[in-house]
Amino acid sequence: MDRGPISDAEARVLPSVCPLDCPDRCSLDVVVEGGRVTAIGGSRSNPLTQGFICSKVARFARRLYGPDRVLTPLRRAGAKGSGKFVRISWQDAADEIAARLPALCGEYGGECVLPFYYGGSNGLLTQGLMDAFFFRRLGSSRLARTVCAASTTLAGRAIYGKMPGVAFEDFARAQFILIWGANPRRSNIHLIPYLKEAKRRGARIAVVDPRRILGDELVDIHLSVYPGSDVAVALAMIRHLVHGGLAAVPFLEQHATGWKELFEWAEGFTLERAARCAGIAPGEIGALADAYAGSDPAVVRCGWGLERNRNGLASVAAVLALPAVAGKFGKPGGGFTLSNSGAYRTDDDRLAGTGEPATRTLNMNRLGSLLTGEPDPPVKALFIYNANPAVTIPDTNGVLRGLQREDLFTVVLEQVMTDSARFADIVLPATTFLEHRELNKSYGCYALQLAGPVVPPEGESKSNAEIFQLLGRALGWTEEILGFDDRQLLAHAVGSVGASLETDLTPAVLEARKILHFDFPGRQPVQFGSAFPGTSDRKVHLWPDELGERPYLFLDAPEAPDYPLALISPSSHLTISSTLGECNRQEVRLEMHPADAGQRGISDGDAVRTFNDRGELHCRVRLEPNLKPGVAALPKGFWPRAALNGASGNVLVADSLTPVSGGACFNDARVQVERLAEKGSGGS
Ligand SMILES: Nc1nc2c(c(=O)[nH]1)N[C@H]1C(S)=C(S)[C@@H](COP(=O)(O)OP(=O)(O)OC[C@H]3O[C@@H](n4cnc5c(=O)[nH]c(N)nc54)[C@H](O)[C@@H]3O)O[C@H]1N2
Ligand SMILES: Nc1nc2c(c(=O)[nH]1)N[C@H]1C(S)=C(S)[C@@H](COP(=O)(O)OP(=O)(O)OC[C@H]3O[C@@H](n4cnc5c(=O)[nH]c(N)nc54)[C@H](O)[C@@H]3O)O[C@H]1N2
Ligand SMILES: [Mo]
Prior knowledge:
Number of domains: 4
Strand order of the largest sheet: 5-4-17-16-15-6
Structural class: alpha/beta
Shape: globular
CATH architecture of the largest domain: 3-Layer(aba) Sandwich
Number of strands: 27
Bound molecules: ligand MGD, molybdenum atom
Largest sheet: 6 strands, mixed
């Protein structure tokens, strides 16, 4: 597809690919009329998409042309956070940044600059390419990207060396599906047809989750566990299998290390002890273990919900150990699926490629502390792109205090005026995936997909890559890559992908085919058939050094007698993290079990104050009998304007970290809820 304005008056259907932070990586049909997007639907080029997409991306044009879109570079013209800006030219913006950075780096060293980026775009051209080059060349601090998947990635790498997982399509072949801390109906909708098909073929489905996430027509077994208790439950299952003679010892002897240490450690986790931790009956755990061990093929869908607490790393490790202990590998539809990104094996250094010496690495979950004093040298310049930390990072009040610092030079690259962008000194308008070229890998489906722009950029927006090239040139740098167009950048990025695809990976092949599949014999991987552990000895490491001295350590929740409710904040159908939150005008609701609400004299629709010693959130309540009593829920990523007091959900979350992996502990939040005195009706 050609770059540049596409302005036919006639309606045309153009191909694209959704790059948002979701495992499905849908292929899209975009209807363009008169140079504008008028409809977006799912296409069939990626077989997983099956012609349907989520309602969020179907309405992405509301973001593209919405009132919150940033259309030109802006300079701050009021107090930080006030959202007052004046329009400036790209030249002025680049000149100002190019004047500030050398001065700050001269005084404090390059490490005083912090790039802050995460899930906005999963593409290989808009992240980890020109931005990485820019910050390495500058000698800036590096970012530990731990807000999500820190524990799942570390556990998956340590135990299996990022072995590719069971393809979603192959879930249809399983006789038993164990969904653990994942909510496919919200976060991975293209798995649902395969769950239904498996069910039609007689499979049983089990869910381990503090919430009833799927209907009884799909789910046979539900363990309504207390958040953070998963490591105890999975270890008790392992102990039960060992004691019942159901552990696959011959498989373990041949293909695993560390299993004896694991079995010994699991001895401490009787069904009774685990059941007490999880708030369920001991028999439920034993029955789940028996049902799982007795079915073949059996697959575990391990999600990310179970990692978002102090036990996240140990829990993911224990759940991933199950298929090895029970000997579930070697057949289509048997094994596990977590992230499949390991199949791509991209070479980040080659992508960023300047060979600069390593600089310090700062943990993004502690942004508030990083900005309010901790590090030496201090952070004096912050570049935020592909992220919205004022909403998505723990300890919002700390983050906002940091962003308010007058001596912090903040540049935000954004598509829309987010709560983070409001704190910028300079806002730079970024294009969306419909306006730039992107190369998309995936952490779910097994395909590499190229998408070109389908409409010209709105306003003066530019892609991240173009923006960092522009800033590099403004700094007087002269490297060739700073002049690459998007085709040259694509060629550069392609050189860093070491995936084993069905055909040679070249820019020409990509341009012609748009989608390239992985070359596992028979197309989908079979764990221990055509996909093997990427560990040094090709074995499963069940007691790996990378997970610390006690990989399966269970930690009790911190005592919080004044805050008796556990607050979780999983994916909702309204946003992808906070992306598209600007299109969602509804008030946010706190979900509570009717029993918890009743005890507090709270009825459905009442306005409440949810609080702990870190902050408070005002919103209305929705009664939710599907939640475990003692657990309340907020949707992840709602914009503060959806709350009655303009607070983000993360005002209630501490910036504590999971041991070893440094992950965020969103679901360790503990709160109390009380009715707000009625002061008329707030909000819409
Ligand atoms: N619509 C939509 N889709 C998304 C996203 C989105 O925001 N919206 N986000 C994307 C991103 S960034 C990610 S990382 C993935 C994440 O997607 P998922 O893996 O589904 O993760 P979560 O949505 O965090 O939580 C999943 C489930 O875990 C449960 N849970 C919470 N705490 C615990 C616990 O301690 N133990 C157990 N067993 N369960 C627990 C929650 O009740 C929830 O049902 O989804 C991606 N897809
Ligand atoms: N309470 C609570 N908070 C959570 C979680 C939770 O479970 N509970 N989950 C966490 C998880 S799983 C994740 S992954 C994080 C995600 O947190 P973030 O990484 O902050 O992700 P988003 O909120 O989606 O914000 C991404 C931003 O990038 C912008 N963007 C998209 N594409 C581009 C581009 O090409 N260029 C530029 N410049 N900008 C772009 C979007 O407009 C959007 O504002 O949130 C975490 N926050
Ligand atoms: Mo995430």
